[in-house]
Structure formats: C-alpha cells, structure tokens
C-alpha cells in the first residue's frame, strides 16, 4: 500500500509539473520563431494577408515569423502539413473558403476541419466578380442572359479552377439567370484573367480585386459582384443582388487557424496580437489596395462561418452537379 501511495504521489507530482510547464510556456509564447503556412501560391489574398500579419507580429513579438507557401491539391497539401504539426502555436495556417468548396466537390477532405484544426479568427473577405471581354458587347447580367438565350451553347467562362469558390459562384449565377455557359478551369485566377483579356474566353469569374485595374482601363467589362454591398475597388459595378439575383452574398473569406488542441491561452494571445496588427493604418491601407476587406470575428464566429459555408457548398455542388 505504501508503494502504491508513493507511486500515486509521484504521478500526481509529475502531472502538476507538466501543467506548470505548459502554463509557463503559454505565458512566454512565442519563445521561438513561428511559421504561417499558406496552402496556395504567392500573390493571392491569403498570401498578402499572411505577409502583412507576419511583418506586424515580428515587431510585436521580437521573434521571426515566416510565411511558407505550400500550394497544391486545392490547398490540401499545405493544410495537411499544419494538421500534422504540434499544437503549440508555432505552426499556423492562413486558410480561405476554398477549404469549404473542396468539401462540396469531393464530399470529404483528407482531414476533418472540426477535429484536426483549431479556429483562431476571421481576418477578411474578398468578393468574386464576373467579367466580359468588350467584344461580347454586354454590360450586365441581364444583357448576358439575353445573349446566352439568343446564342445557346456558345458561351464559355474561365474560372480559377474547377471546384473553387469562383466556379461555384458562376454556377449560382447560371442557376438564377438561366445563362448557359461552359466552365473552363484554370490553375489559378491570373491565367483566367489573361485569357479573357486576350479574348480566348469571352467571360471569366475571378477574385474581384484582380479585375479592378482592367475595368478602370476599359479592357474588361465587369458585369457583377458577388457581395451584398458594392466592392470598394469596383464602386461603379452593381452587385448581383442589385441586379435581381436575390439572395446573393458569396465572398471568399480568409481565416487564421492552428493544429488541433491549440491551448486557449495561445489562441487568445495570437488573436489579440493579430487584431492589433490589422488595426495598424499602414496595414489597413495595404490591404485596402489589395482589395481585402476587413471582417473581424473570433474563433466562435469562424466555426459558425465554416459550418454554414460547408453546407452551402455541399448543397450547391449537388444542385449544380459540380464534382471532380
């Protein structure tokens, strides 16, 4: 009995030490460099946000904060890298709504977002916009619907990849307008923009920020924007809702996450400090120029957003027959 009691006391002591060490580590977070994994190529909204946040956090923390782009498999490669990392706050993920659209396309993911990732915060949004080459001679979705009706099965549209949020938004436009257009998937939004500028495809649906300079120069006509309110970089372009496609509020969201079991104290620390970075006037200006609109939200808000978008993409995938 004495030996058993001694063993119990020893185990209890070790447990208390472990708790104390964990608490100490959280209080001193970060005690070493942190990496933010972006599961997409450089230059997109996720990458821009990650780099702004990393620069700001370095100043606050006095630690290195590196951004690693691990693109591939529609964001799954980089995300799985984070899923496999230790839940200590030193590996973070800057994900976007492509994660939810992937679920709609494939029916399941190689990881479970609810179990394998810790939500930290919502960061911002970028709407999606539909553009036409000037030779198409249309200026809004009503004109596009009339053209499609007069020339059935002749239109095509470029998107940022089959199963991306942009692809889903155009399929929703088609459902609400009756426009008949064949999707052409590209490896990213930029090639789709290049081809609609060159007239290789008459239409393209991409992240709205990429279209702003071409709309201003008159090289493209932007027919509509997916957000419920007008987009700051395209103030003269009506939303789809303004054109009668109601309800229609479909944005690309950006969010910060970590591996499973991230300590609550670390989550709170990261969220508070990232919030400070996003309030910096220079960061605000840079993000506004890049077309990323702020949308603040804590871990609970992010969880709700992911659940709702997961269901929305799954439902739309079924109704539009979007699959791999």
From TrEMBL:
Signal sequence extent: 1-25
InterPro entries linked to this entry: BUG (IPR005064), Bug_dom1 (IPR042100)
CDD domains linked to this entry: PBP2_Bug27 (cd13578)
Keyword terms: Signal
Name of a matching Pfam family: TctC
Family statement drawn from the similarity comment of this UniProt entry: Belongs to the UPF0065 (bug) family.
Stored PANTHER family: BLR1237 PROTEIN, TRICARBOXYLATE-BINDING PROTEIN
Protein name in UniProt: Tripartite tricarboxylate transporter substrate binding protein
Organism: Ramlibacter aurantiacus
């Amino acid at each position: 009995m004495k030996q058993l009691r001694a063993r119990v006391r020893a185990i209890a002591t070790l447990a208390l030490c472990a708790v104390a060490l964990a608490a100490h580590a959280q209080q001193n977070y970060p005690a070493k460099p942190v990496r933010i994994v972006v599961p997409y190529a450089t230059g997109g909204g996720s990458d821009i946000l990650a780099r702004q946040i990393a620069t700001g956090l370095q100043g606050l923390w006095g630690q290195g904060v590196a951004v690693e782009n691990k693109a591939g498999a529609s964001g799954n490669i980089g995300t799985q890298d984070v899923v496999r990392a230790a839940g200590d706050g030193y590996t973070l993920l800057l994900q976007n709504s492509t994660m939810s659209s992937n679920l709609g396309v494939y029916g399941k993911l190689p990881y479970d977002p609810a179990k394998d990732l810790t939500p930290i915060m919502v960061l911002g949004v970028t709407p999606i916009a539909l553009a036409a080459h000037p030779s198409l001679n249309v200026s809004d979705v009503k004109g596009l619907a009339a053209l499609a009706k007069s020339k059935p099965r002749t239109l095509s549209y470029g998107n940022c990849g089959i199963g991306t949020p942009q692809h889903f938004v155009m399929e929703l436009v088609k459902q609400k307008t009756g426009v008949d257009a064949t999707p052409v998937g590209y490896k990213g939004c930029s090639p789709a923009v290049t081809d609609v500028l060159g007239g290789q495809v008459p239409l393209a649906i991409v992240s709205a920020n990429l279209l702003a300079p071409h709309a201003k120069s008159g090289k493209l006509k932007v027919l509509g924007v997916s957000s419920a309110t007008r987009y700051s970089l395209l103030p003269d372009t009506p939303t789809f809702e303004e054109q009668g496609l109601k309800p229609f509020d479909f944005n690309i969201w950006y969010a910060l996450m970590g591996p499973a079991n991230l300590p609550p104290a670390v989550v709170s620390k990261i969220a508070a400090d990232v919030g400070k970075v996003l309030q910096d006037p220079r960061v605000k200006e840079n993000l506004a120029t890049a077309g990323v609109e702020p949308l603040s939200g804590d871990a609970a808000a992010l969880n709700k957003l992911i659940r709702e978008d997961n269901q929305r993409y799954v439902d739309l995938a079924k109704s539009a027959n979007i699959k791999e």
